[in-house]
């Protein structure tokens, strides 16, 4: 499902086949590190029309190393 121009994961369960990391671990994957708040904002609102793909199960929201790499590639 694609919403407006913001690219969201078409199949959020596909992330579960990748290397899952918490949102705080994902923040450390970005060059120079970023705040966890930025990670949540990029997942919710996106940057340049691209959202960071995440999956929520239970009360936890997580992403994957591969999703971070895709996000960086698409936003540059």
Overall geometry = globular
- Percent of residues in beta strands: 5-15%
Counted by DSSP, the helix tally is: 3
Average pLDDT confidence is 85
Strand order of the largest sheet: 1-3-2
How many strands, which pairing sense, and closed or not: the largest β-sheet?
A: 3 strands, antiparallel
Count of beta strands: 3
Question: What structural category characterises the helix and strand content?
Answer: alpha+beta
Rg, alpha carbons: 11 Å
- Helix percentage: 25-40%
Spans with pLDDT under 50 lasting ≥5 residues? 1-9
> What is the CA-CA span between the terminal residues?
23 Å
User: What is the chain-wise order of helices and strands?
Assistant: EHHEEH
In words, what does this structure look like?
Helix content is 36%, strand content 14%. The protein is built from 3 helices and 3 strands; from the N terminus they run E-H-H-E-E-H. The chain has 76 residues and is α+β, with helices and mostly antiparallel strands. The protein has helices spanning 23-29, 36-44, 65-75, and strands at residues 20-22, 55-57, 60-64. The radius of gyration is 11 Å and the shape is globular.
